[in-house]
Amino acid sequence: MLDLGSSRLKWQVRSDAGEILACGGSAWPGGTPRPELPSRAPDRIWMAHVGPGERAQALLAWVRQRFAAVPVQYVRPEPEGPAGLRLDYDHRQLGADRFCALLGVLARSGKPAVVIDAGTAITVDVLGAGGRHLGGYIAPGLRPGWAAVMRLLPGALREQIGAALPGPAQQHASAHVGAPGHGTAAALEQGWRLGLIGAVERLGAAAETAAGAGAQWWLTGGDAPWLAESLGRPVRVEPDLVLDGLWLYACRSGAGTGEPR
Fold first, then answer.
1. Would the N or C end of the chain have less CB density within 10 A of its end CB?
2. How far apart are CA 119 and CA 115, in angstroms?
């Protein structure tokens, strides 16, 4: 199973019973170097992808070079999906990753839910009672928003600060989120992080109201770990929510054949 996001690729190999036999993932903007793939050919490949079609085509070409005879199938969001999922959202505009994340929640719980994917974009989806998707919200993620802020700064200041936030391995070693910055770089970073946290809290609260009483918050995506620590409420972190939903889709749906679009 392949989860091709806007900036990363994650994959899993599962047995017929759903046991994870192998997994991997890395940042992959497309092109070269080619991403890591399983060493052994699977029986079938399922892909959920978002972003430019060229990246999906490049990955497909690499997959077919490695595993020429293995059939590849794709997630196609539909108004009614597996596990009782029903969309009020225009299914033609719902990303395969969001569709699979909703399925991943339904695989574990039939209760109302707020489903947050913190990646290149922040998506907040409303899952009501009975598997009804009531819509959602989209906002810029941590790094695209930071890049937009940096582009507005004078050149000298931009060079001084640098265009990148600390990487995931460094984030927990950085100053506590919320502490005042003692320089322009730190003040900008803390301001942007706090603004993003506040946006997620407000969007999540609105989604919770729409979802109904007892809605649980679910969080996935590359920025989920630090965001979960910063939110002022309980939240369930599931790093592989999209792949879990993709597995459910593969098990229960006969749809999804064709080329990526």
1. C
2. 13
- Looking at the chain, the whole-number percentage of residues with pLDDT higher than 70 is 90
Say what the pTM is.
0.88
For residues 235 and 232, what is the distance between their CA atoms, to the nearest angstrom? Answer: 9
| Weakly modelled stretches of the chain, pLDDT under 70 | 32-33, 162-176, 253-261
Active site residues: 97
As annotated, the residues of the chain forming the CATH 3.30.420.40 domain(s) are: 2-74, 78-244
For 78-244, CATH number out of 3.40.50.150, 1.20.120.80, 2.60.40.10, 3.30.420.40 equals: 3.30.420.40
The H-or-E segment that residue 12 falls in is: strand 8-14
Helix (H) or strand (E) holding 14: strand 8-14
Flag whether 243 is marked binding.
no
CATH 3.40.630.30 fits 2-74, yes or no: no
Task: Check whether 151 is labelled as a binding-site residue.
Answer: no
Does 10 show up as a binding residue in the annotation? Answer: yes
Q: How far apart are CA 101 and CA 121, in angstroms?
A: 14
Q: In the numeric block, which tokens belong to residue 233? A: 């409420």
